[in-house]
Amino acid sequence: MHSTFNFNSNTKNQEKFYSKYVIPHQISRDVAVDLGSNVGFFVLDNWLSFKSIFAIDASYQNFCETLKKVLAMRIKYSDKHLVGTDGSAAVPGDQVACFNLAAAKNSGEIIKVFKHAWSAESVSCMTNKEMFHAQYKDWTEAREPFHNVFTISLEDLYKLFDVDYIDYLKIDIEGAEYDFLFGKDLSKIGAIGLELHGTFGQEKKNEMKEYLSKYFEIYDVQYDNDAPGHSVITYINKELA
Question: At CB < 8 A and 24+ separation, what contacts does 110-113 make?
Answer without folding.
Answer: 110/148, 110/149, 110/150, 110/151, 111/148, 111/149, 111/151, 112/141, 112/146, 112/147, 112/148, 112/149, 113/58, 113/59, 113/146, 113/147, 113/148, 113/149
